[in-house]
From TrEMBL:
InterPro entries in the cross-refs: AAA+_ATPase, ABC_transporter-like_ATP-bd, ABC_transporter-like_CS, P-loop_NTPase, Siderophore_ABC-ATPase
UniProt cross-references to CDD domains, sorted A to Z: ABC_Iron-Siderophores_B12_Hemin
Keywords: ATP-binding, Cell membrane, Ion transport, Iron, Iron transport, Membrane, Nucleotide-binding, Transport
A Pfam family: ABC_tran
Predominant location category: membrane
Boundaries of every ABC transporter domain copy: 2-240
Membrane topology, as annotated: Peripheral membrane protein
GO MF assignments: ATP binding; ATP hydrolysis activity
Protein name (Swiss-Prot/TrEMBL): ABC transporter related protein
Length: 256
C-alpha cells in the first residue's frame, strides 16, 4: 500500500500539485494517466524523494511497517522504491550488464556477491537482453536503452516500482512483453507497479487500477472499466472516443 496524504507541491510561485490524497493498493499494476503537464512526473519525483516533500506525507507499507519517505534513510528508501524517470541521463562506457549490476548497488554497496550476479543473470534472461549484455550503453538504440533501464530498475528488486512512461521508444512486441512482465511481477512477486502511460489502451488492458490526474489534482481512481469511459476521456483530454469492450476491459477508439 502506498499512502499519499495531503501532498501539495510548488515550483517557484506555480502550484503543481494540489492536495493529493491517494491510497494505492498493494500487488497491483496501477496506471497513472492524464494530459501533458498534469503533474504525474512531479508526483513520482516527490514520492521517490528526488524532489523534497513540501507538504503532506508519503509512506510505503513493507511487512506491516509504514516507511515514511521523509524519515527513511537513503538505503532503506533505495530498497523500498525504484523509479524510472523520463529523463534518464545514464551514459558513458558502461556495458549493459554493468549497468544492471548498478541496480543492485543498495544491496552490495560496491561489492557484488554471487547472489547479485545470479539476480542480474535472471533479469537479463527475463528481459531477453542476452544479445545486448556485453554492449556499451552508448551503442544502443533508443528502445534498447529503454529496455535496459527498465531492467536495471527491476534489478533493484524493490517492493514498489514507479515507471514514468516506460513504453517510450518500445515497439509493439516489447511494449506488450513489458506490460506482461510487470503484471507477472505484481501478481506473482507481490510488487506494486505504478506506471505513467499515455497509451490508454495499454492501461485498459493491463492495469488493475487506473488513477487519473489533471491540473495537479487526482480526478478518479478505480478499475479500468469504471474509469476509462467516454466522459472521462472527454474531461481529461478533450477527445471524443468510442469505448468498446474486449473481454471485460475497455478499448478506446478515436471517434473524431
Ligand atoms: N522545473 C520546473 N520548473 C517550472 N515548472 C515545472 C518544472 N517541472 C515541471 N514544471 C511544470 O509542472 C507541471 C507538471 O509537470 P509534470 O512534468 O509533472 O507533468 P506530467 O503530467 O508528467 O506531464 P507529461 O505527460 O507531459 O510528461 C507542468 O505545468 C510543468 O510545466
Amino acid at each position: 500500500m502506498i499512502k499519499i496524504t495531503g501532498v501539495s507541491h510548488h515550483i517557484g510561485k506555480q502550484q503543481i500539485l494540489h492536495d493529493i490524497n491517494l491510497l494505492l493498493p498493494p500487488s497491483q499494476v496501477i496506471a497513472l494517466i492524464g494530459p501533458n503537464g498534469a503533474g504525474k512526473s512531479t508526483l513520482f519525483s516527490v514520492m521517490a524523494r528526488l524532489q523534497s516533500l513540501q507538504s503532506g506525507q508519503v509512506s510505503f507499507a513493507v511487512d506491516n511497517e509504514e516507511r515514511d519517505i521523509v524519515q527513511c534513510d537513503a538505503r532503506t528508501l533505495a530498497t523500498t522504491v525504484a523509479m524510472l524517470s523520463q529523463d534518464n541521463q545514464v551514459q558513458g562506457r558502461l556495458r549493459v550488464h554493468e549497468l544492471l549490476m548498478f541496480g543492485r548497488y543498495p544491496y552490495h554497496q560496491g561489492r557484488p556477491t554471487a547472489s547479485d550476479q545470479k539476480q542480474v543473470a535472471e533479469i537479463i534472461e527475463r528481459f531477453e537482453l542476452e544479445p545486448l549484455a556485453e554492449r556499451f550503453l552508448s551503442a544502443l538504440s533508443g528502445g534498447q536503452r529503454q529496455r535496459v533501464l527498465i531492467a536495471m530498475i527491476v534489478c533493484q528488486d524493490t517492493p514498489y516500482l514507479l515507471l514514468d512512461e516506460p513504453l517510450n521508444n518500445l515497439d509493439m512486441y516489447h511494449s506488450g512483453r513489458l506490460m506482461r512482465e510487470l503484471r507477472e511481477l505484481s501478481h506473482s512477486q507481490q510488487k506494486t507497479v505504478v506506471i505513467v502511460l499515455h497509451d490508454i489502451n495499454q492501461a485498459a488492458q493491463f492495469a488493475d487500477t487506473v488513477v487519473t490526474m489533471k491540473d495537479g489534482q487526482v480526478q478518479a481512481i478505480g478499475c479500468p472499466v469504471d474509469v476509462i469511459t467516454q466522459q472521462t476521456m472527454k474531461d481529461l483530454y478533450n477527445v471524443d472516443v468510442t469505448v468498446l469492450n474486449h473481454q471485460g476491459r475497455p478499448v478506446i477508439v478515436d471517434a473524431a
